[in-house]
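sanity check this record:

:::
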Amino acid sequence: MEKRRSKRHAKRLKVRFGEKGTSTFPHSGLTNDVSATGLFVVTGQTPKPGARLHLEVTMPGELPLFIEGVVMRQVLVPPELRQVVKAGFGIRFLLGSELMAELVPAMTSQAKEDPFLLTFAEKDQWRAAVEKDFKRGGLFVWIRKAVAQNMIVTVTFDLIFLRRQLAFEARVVHTNAGADGRTGVSLMFVDAAGAIASLTSTLDG
């Protein structure tokens, strides 16, 4: 499994946040660390994993930065221990492909030529794939184009039954040529822990 994750940087910035569908940012907190793919917010308000959030991060110079993401983990701490352990939540930034799939639904049909687009029409089919393969940190696909070792690609999961798409960066770790002209590609998620948390959150309920 790909063990490397996006490097975290200690950073303390003011954050206001609210769940998708609200026009305000009713809750506040401070970032504890940030990376290229997400950040951790220290706060007493801890939304559940899978929640979609809008965030306003106050950058140096009081400049606001607006972010949308999905809660990956929740850290609950009793009040008497909060001086020792930080309560809060970790969030993964949504990729542009995920947002564009919502803004321009027609892109879903146009993307059918994308060899790294996997479509799941039924929940049981999706659950089986997550439990059997994706929870291990990667996947295997057959494609009809050449890719290079260590190449970074974007894998998109189109969950038709949820009317939702998930997209993750993945690294090509192995390829092998098939007899029918296709290429078998083994992929590992770049941020394996974040991808697994996001994928498994869709199995709730």
